[in-house]
Design brief:
The protein is mainly β. The protein contains no helices and 37 strands. It starts with a strand and ends in an 8-residue tail after the last strand.
């Protein structure tokens, strides 16, 4: 067992040499452990960090990051890595590869739990857990890939749980669970593809937001959003299509003043969106009206419109499935082939609508 403590700076720090780039390698057996406590970055390198073996590493920073690699980060083997920082739990300047059958835990305070400026690859069948008090639990500037039975669990109290600027790809029995108390469960700004894997995303305004389209292929998906008195979308895509196929099971729930279980929309010519294709799958999409009323002490009372609402009160729009194009874009389309689709909404179960370029004709 090894312990490193520094009450006024970094715990372990590797800097570039005159002729060599910094690289930090940490390895150990199942009976080995390394504990690092510091005020500044607990474990940092101006270059790469490679962690391997079956040992246990616990790094804690009271004023900075638990682990900070300015280059790439690689974690392999079957050990346990616990990184906690008042800023980021783990921050990576380049790419991060977590190919482990063990456990990786990243907890952030003011910033992210796991912050990767490049791409993040998770494989090996292990568990990755990330959390943040005030920022995103997992933030990836590049692509995120989860495969080989690996599991990623992310939660944030005040921000999105998972944000991916590139593509998110899941395959081979991967599992991703993302939850946010006050924001979106997941936001993906590239393409989202889930094959032979499980995705669960819950949040306030959106359970799952995907900008460049969604493909679920033999996938199990559950998304939910609860946002009293405001907009809520279980699954929302903007300017691209939704494809659900090959034995997928998808459940989407939304509760808010304006809500949709599943929504695909398109406002611009020359791009996709406003199309949803379901084949040989099971889909359930439910949207409910949910208003929020301030009570004594600031608590929110949840009241369903269908339960007890004044007849003169104006209700929002709550639709199970919304497929919409505007501004004269090609017609909206919902295709259901050899599938079971259940849709429920306080306003309508399903809305498929295209409007003319001037908005005068629907």
């Amino acid at each position: 067992d090894n312990t490193v403590t520094n009450g006024d700076g970094e715990g372990i720090s590797v800097v570039n040499g005159v002729n060599e780039k910094a690289e930090l390698n940490i390895t150990g057996g199942a009976d080995d452990s390394l504990t690092v406590d510091a005020t500044s970055d607990a474990v940092e390198s101006a270059g790469d960090i490679n962690i391997s073996g079956d040992g246990t590493i616990t790094s804690t920073a009271s004023r900075a990051d638990g682990i900070d690699a300015e280059g790439n980060l690689t974690i392999s083997g079957g050990g346990t890595v616990n990184a906690t920082g008042s800023s980021d739990g783990i921050e990576v300047g380049g790419n991060a590869t977590i190919d482990t059958s063990g456990n990786v835990v990243a907890k952030g305070g003011s910033n992210n739990g796991l912050d990767v400026n490049g791409s993040l690859t998770i494989s090996g069948g292990g568990n990755v857990t990330a959390g943040s008090e005030n920022d995103e639990a997992v933030a990836v500037d590049g692509d995120l890939s989860i495969s080989g039975g690996s599991r990623l669990e992310a939660s944030s109290e005040n921000d999105e749980a998972v944000v991916v600027d590139g593509d998110l790809t899941m395959s081979g029995g991967g599992r991703l669970e993302a939850s946010s108390d006050r924001s979106s469960g997941m936001e993906v700004y590239g393409a989202l593809s889930v094959t032979d894997s499980t995705l669960v995303a819950t949040g306030a305004r959106e359970g799952l937001y995907a900008y460049k389209g969604v493909t679920f292929d033999h996938a199990t998906v559950r998304v939910a959003a609860r946002n009293p008195g405001n907009e809520a979308f279980g699954l929302f895509t903007d300017e691209d299509d939704i494809v659900i196929r090959n034995g997928s099971v998808v459940e989407a729930f939304a509760e808010g003043a304006y809500s949709a279980g599943i929504s695909t929309q398109n406002y611009e010519k020359g791009v996709a969106g406003g199309h949803m294709f379901v084949s040989e799958s099971v889909v359930k999409a439910v949207a409910r009206y949910l208003e929020g009323e301030e009570q004594d002490g600031g608590d929110i009372a949840m009241n369903y419109a269908s339960a007890d609402v004044d007849g003169d009160e104006r209700l929002g729009r709550n639709v199970g499935i919304v497929v919409l194009t505007k501004n004269g874009v090609s017609p909206a389309k919902l295709s259901i082939v050899r599938s079971t689709v259940t849709a429920e909404g306080d306003t309508a179960a399903i809305l498929v609508c295209a409007t003319s370029e001037d908005g005068s004709v629907a």
